[in-house]
Amino acid sequence: xxxxxxxxxxxxxxxxxxxxxxxxxxxxxxxxxxxxxxxxxxxxxxxxxxxxxxxxxxxxxxxxxxxxxxxxxxxxxxxxxxxxxxxxxxxxxxxxxxxxxxxxxxxxxxxxxxxxxxxxxxxxxxxxxxxxx
Length: 133
Hints:
VC0802-like
C-alpha cells in the first residue's frame, strides 16, 4: 500500500489556476445570478454555497469575505485517493496554510488564501515531488 501511495504522489500534477475565487452563498431556492459560473457548489440547509471567480461575484453583488487561490491535484487513478488528500492536507497544515479541500469526480481541488497560492504550490510540489508544470 505504501508503494501505491508513493506512485500516486509521484504521478500527481499540481495546477495553480489563475485568478481569485470566493466562497459565497445564494438563498435557498434562488437561481444563480446571471454571469455566475460556479466551480463548486454545495447544497446546505441554510443556502447554496457557491465557489466562483471573484469578478463574477463582484459583478453579481454576491457577498464574500476573502479570495482564495485554486489548486487542482491531477492524480493518476488509484484506490489511495483519500490518502493523497490526507497527505496534501497534512503538508499544508504543517506549513501553517489554511485550506479547503474539495473532491470532484476526476480530481481533488484545494483552496488556500489567494496570497498564499504560490507558497502552497511549493509545499505540495515538495510533497509530491512533482516537476514544475
